[in-house]
Design a protein that fits this description.
Blueprint: H1 7-17, H2 19-28, H3 45-58, E1 67-71, H4 77-86, E2 89-93, H5 97-109, E3 116-119, E4 133-139, H6 148-158, E5 159-168, E6 171-172, H7 182-188, H8 196-206, E7 208-215, H9 217-233, H10 235-238, H11 244-262, E8 266-267, E9 269-275
Parallel strand pairs: 1-2, 1-4, 2-3, 4-5
Antiparallel strand pairs: 5-9, 6-8, 7-9
Length: 276
């Protein structure tokens, strides 16, 4: 069966399926937690990215009976952490076939195939039954939808009553001036971004209650700065894995993220909601 995707989702799928992107994220981030990190002095990107997973998990009550859906699961690092540390059963929903192959390999290598299921689907239209999950988890993925309200609506449908949604996402600030993020949007081929205000209002309209919002935009700036530094420090190695064109475009894009973050046009943090 051939699946159909909205233009933004298909754009993300094609990007993450590319050899350049797969090699870049597997090498720079270490192929586990390919998300924005929480940095402490001396941290590597891998360590900081994993700390975000640990922080989010600490905000939840998790055990062997907890059923989790990771929306936009990347290489499945959070799922493996939740399975190993808390015994959770985790479904990884992800649109990239290339990332999913790596996830399967890592799950097998770490002996976790019995705890983690991979679902290769579009998060705007998920073919799963209602009220299956205790927790829906997502890291830096929902921005890739052109219909973020629909993604939250699908998440709400899949959560059990009292179930929790916890996620991070690169966002625009609530008071971001019109037009200033165009270089960032052009880089990621999107027309818009969400914001803390948008997500909070939309979640509340759908029937969620807000548990906690932790805004940490400085970590977004630090993260993209560190990625840029890592590219420069390891350029000879990286160019054996990725094309010069890809790296050149990546560096331009990173500078746009850093500049916009420093000017207060972007936002990032952990958003935590409960289904009423």
């Amino acid at each position: 069966m051939t699946l159909e995707y909205s233009t933004p989702v298909e754009t993300a799928r094609s990007y993450y399926n590319s050899d350049d992107a797969d090699h870049f994220y597997a090498s720079i981030w270490g192929g586990e937690d390919i998300h924005i990190g929480l940095y402490e002095k001396g941290d590597s990107i891998f360590e900081a990215s994993h700390r975000t997973v640990e922080k989010m998990a600490s905000m939840l009550t998790l055990n062997e009976g907890t059923k989790v859906l990771d929306v936009g699961a990347g290489y499945g690092g959070p799922a493996r952490y939740l399975a190993k540390t808390y015994g959770c059963n985790v479904d990884c929903l992800n649109v990239s076939e290339v990332q999913n192959r790596r996830t399967r390999q890592l799950n097998q290598e770490q002996g976790l195939t019995h705890k983690i299921r991979i679902i290769e689907e579009n998060f705007e239209a998920i073919s799963l039954d209602d009220q299956q999950y205790d927790v829906v988890w997502s890291q830096d993925a929902i921005l890739h939808s052109g219909n973020r309200r629909q993604v939250l609506s699908e998440i709400y449908r899949l959560l059990k009553p009292g179930g929790e949604l916890i996620f991070t996402d690169p966002m625009q600030s609530d008071d971001c001036p019109s037009g200033v993020l165009q270089p960032v949007l052009d880089r990621i081929l999107l027309d818009s971004m969400g914001s803390i205000g948008f997500y909070t209002q939309t979640a509340n309209e759908l029937g969620f209650e807000t548990i906690q919002i932790i805004e940490m935009t400085e970590q977004l700036v630090e993260h993209y700065s560190r990625v840029l530094q890592e590219i420069d420090a390891r350029i000879d190695e990286i160019l054996k894995l990725c094309s010069q064109e890809y790296i050149d475009r990546m560096k331009v894009g990173l500078n746009h993220w850093i500049e916009s973050g420093k000017k207060g046009y972007l936002a990032w943090g952990i958003l935590h909601f409960r289904k009423k």
